[in-house]
Amino acid sequence: MLVSYTIFRSSVAHSDNRCAAETQVAFIAKVLRKVANQNIATIAPQKQAADDFVEYCDAFFPRTVLSENCSSWANGGRPGGRIHGMWPGSAAHVTWVRREPRWEDFEYTYLQTRNRFAWLGNGRREREANVESDATPYLKVAGSVDLRDYHESWWDL
């Protein structure tokens, strides 16, 4: 379901492929950073969260043109069939959802089982030991905003 939530339920039907690809990659990068930084061994959606998402999708699509009596890849080639593989909403909607994942809807197992907060380390960032690093990377000079900020700015923390 994690893959379905991020990739296959894409917004391509509602926008251009570039925006969909960018937001999908940004979402997947968030998942990978979470896994790497928090010593997570596995991540999977909770069964109830997956069931609720399917219920939401099943309630959404009948209100759209996709449920008309036509044949398409979205309904498995069966006129009137169940819609699958598409995001239940607009491109703007899926972009908004991907920006702030609901981590509480997932189950995790950790590499370190003694203390789930071991990933916090010594309470400092490596860059803080470098006297030449910028102590306030979040302050920007007007007109110098990096276009990568459009989706997220994790790299300068």
Description of the molecule:
The longest helix has 21 residues, at 17-37. This protein has a single domain, classed as FAD/NAD(P)-binding domain. It is 32% helix and 7% strand. It contains 4 helices and 2 strands.
Key descriptive features of the protein:
157 residues, mainly alpha, FAD/NAD(P)-binding domain, 4 helices, flat
SS field, number of helical segments: 4
Using only CA atoms, what is the Rg?
Answer: 20 Å
- Count structural domains: 1
Poorly predicted runs are none
- What is the assigned CATH homologous superfamily? FAD/NAD(P)-binding domain
Write a brief caption for the model.
The chain has 157 residues and is mostly helical.
Task: Give the topology.
Layout (H helix, E strand, L loop, with lengths): L1 H7 L8 H21 L2 E6 L1 H14 L30 H9 L6 E5 L47
Antiparallel strand pairs: 1-2
Helix pairs in contact: 2-4
